[in-house]
Specification:
Layout (H helix, E strand, L loop, with lengths): L1 H20 L10 E7 L2 H8 L5 E9 L8 H5 L6 E8 L6 H11 L7 E2 L2 E2 L5 E5 L2 H14 L10 E4 L4 E2 L7 H4 L4 H13 L3
Parallel strand pairs: 6-7
Antiparallel strand pairs: 1-3, 1-6, 2-3, 2-8, 4-5
Helix pairs in contact: 2-7, 4-5
Length: 196
C-alpha cells in the first residue's frame, strides 16, 4: 500500500508540473511599439497580425488634432487623423527595420491620400515615431525603399503625439469577418501577394 501511495504521489507531482508549464512562452522582457498608417487599418492590422514577433496590432487614429475622434469623424477627412495601427513587438524577434521593410511592401507609399478605392487624407501613408532613434530608422528605411518605386515616396514621418484606439468593431476585423466583401476582395489578395 505504501508503494502504491508513493507512486501515486510522484505521478501527481509530475502531472502538476507538466500542467503548470502549459507550454506557454515566457513573455518577452522588453517590448516596443510603432504606429503605422498605410490605408485602411483593417488591411495593415491583418498583415502584421501574421508576422512573427508582432505581439499585438491595434487599429486606431493618429496624426490629427481632434481629441478622442470617432470613426465617423475621421471618415470625413477633416480631423487630420489617419487610420493607423499601433504595433507592439518583441525586438528580440523582429527589428523595426524589418517591420518597415514589410510596411513598404504592404501598401503603395507613392500615392498621396489614397490606397486603392480608399480615398482621403485618413488613408495617407504615415509613420509616427516616439523618439529620435525611431525617426532615424524610419528615414533610412524610406531612403532605401525609394529604389523599389518609380514615383517618389510620399509617406509622412512625424512625431507621435497621441494614439486613439478605434472602436471595438474595428479590432481584428479580418479575423472576425473573413468573408465580408472588403476582406474577400481587398485584404485576402493583399495577404496572398505578401505570402501571408
Amino acid at each position: 500500500m505504501k508503494y502504491f501511495l508513493l507512486i501515486t504521489g510522484v505521478c501527481m507531482i509530475l502531472l502538476a508540473a507538466l500542467a503548470g508549464s502549459g507550454g506557454a512562452e515566457t513573455p518577452p522582457s522588453k517590448t516596443d511599439t510603432i504606429v503605422l498608417g498605410g490605408g485602411c487599418f483593417w488591411c495593415v492590422e491583418a498583415v502584421y497580425e501574421r508576422i512573427e514577433g508582432i505581439l499585438d496590432a491595434v487599429s486606431g487614429y493618429a496624426g490629427g488634432s481632434v481629441k478622442n475622434p470617432t470613426y465617423e469623424q475621421v471618415s470625413t477627412g477633416r480631423t487630420g487623423h489617419a487610420e493607423v495601427v499601433q504595433l507592439t513587438y518583441d525586438p528580440s524577434k523582429i527589428t523595426l527595420e524589418k517591420i518597415l521593410e514589410i510596411f513598404w511592401k504592404a501598401h503603395d507609399p507613392t500615392t498621396p491620400n489614397r490606397q486603392g478605392a480608399d480615398v482621403g487624407p485618413q488613408y495617407r501613408s504615415i509613420i509616427l515615431y516616439k523618439n529620435e532613434t525611431e525617426r532615424r530608422v524610419a528615414e533610412e528605411s524610406k531612403r532605401k525603399a525609394q529604389s523599389s518605386f518609380r514615383s517618389p515616396i510620399v509617406t509622412e514621418i512625424l512625431p507621435l503625439t497621441e494614439f486613439y484606439r478605434a472602436e471595438e468593431y474595428h479590432q481584428d476585423y479580418y479575423r472576425k469577418n473573413p468573408y465580408a466583401g472588403y476582406c474577400t476582395f481587398v485584404i485576402r489578395p493583399k495577404l496572398e501577394k505578401l505570402g501571408l
